[in-house]
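RETRY 2/3 - previous attempt timed out on the joint model. Re-submitting the same 446-residue input unchanged.
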Amino acid sequence: MSNTSGKSDMFDGKLFFLQTYAALPGKAGEFRCLFSRSFAPLLEKRGLRKAAFWETSQVEGPSGEHLALWEFSDPSEMIGLTRALDAPDGDLELQAVRDDLSLLVSRQEGWTYLGSGQSLAIADMRREGITLKNCLWEQVDIVPNQYALFENALRVDYLRLIRDSGIRLVGVYRPQLFSIKATVLWDLEDFSCLSRLDEIDDTAALRHWGNIALTFRTAVSGRLLRAI
Amino acid sequence: MALYMQETLKVTPKLQADYLRHAEAEYLPAARAAGLRAMGFWRIASFKGEPSEIIALWELDDWAAVSRMSGGDPAAEALRRWHEKAGQWVLQRDAMVMRQRAHHLEPADRKDMATRFCFHETMIIERNKERDYVLGIETQLGKSYELQGMHVVGEFQPAFRSGLIINFWTVAHGFDSVGMMGRQEAEPFFTGGHWMEIALALRKHWRSVWLVPLPIRL
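RETRY 2/3 succeeded.
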């Protein structure tokens, strides 16, 4: 059915919650343990579905950084979660574990992410054998109002370049309330499949992609992530 | 294709000697076992930047080495244990995989770079101009600096961060070379222009620091 509401439906219906934590030096092990054993089960009890819990690879990105990506079904669930976490009469057990976690980190953030229509839900990932064990997480600064064209170019031009490489596009997301940020999640068979990027490194095709991408994005930075 | 990893560590100067002792005994063997070859450890010179910052440069064979380092094999586990332990000295650590973009490197310049005073630049490049900038350095500024005893040993482009080039230069005369920066003469290899005027079209701004080699046996 076509969208007659007049609203953009590019980021419609795929809802995610991203948590980023920077563990204090020497506290990563303790942080992971507390997050996995105590905090994550409480979020799952509230209906969030865990897509992945990663740590940043030792070769790319800040040490001690951890990301957790959750899927949920309806905005009301996120409202319920923020109330549980942030209201004085919220979920005291959840708040206590959150506070214990905060002693082990120097930074923590939570963002609601809206997945594009073509982004995979957890059920789609399972069907396609995507494990999110090794991932590339790219943060992209988008030229304003160019999300759709950026994703289209990515799917048409860039995917052709990395065909059969073991690098698979999982989704394109934008943080809620941010208009020039996008995140692209790639699933990697393992990190050695990134050698495909070396093969195309100095080709006319890659330079062409670079020129196309200029139209839609102003900067990109990535993290290599490994599931815990 | 060989890859490079720049590691940036923040270690309070008072703790650096202790950190280096332990790094030599524990980090270097673990890193070697995981396929990392250390090219040098330097501290940022005190007169231009933050001396708590240590920069280490590593070489890896390829992405398969990255994969091994990130997996669950014993070498990767040993490295992970080291980084966890290093929290007693290291306040902050960041790592970046890079590709070498310079085409005309003299192996002799790189041979003893770990023991050399170095000049390090983080260049913020105009969009999609990274290759042009590297070419400009190789054909223009690099030739000029050679006359001053500075040799480019790396022009590294991060694999996952756009708009950046990291320049590494070895410096012949150690601390005495510091004075050459900021002089106003036209560079001898330019015909009709100063490097700064050429560079304006290719980069936005930069951070440059001097690197003092640290006492660690690689």
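DSSP finds six helices and eight strands in chain B. Closing ticket.
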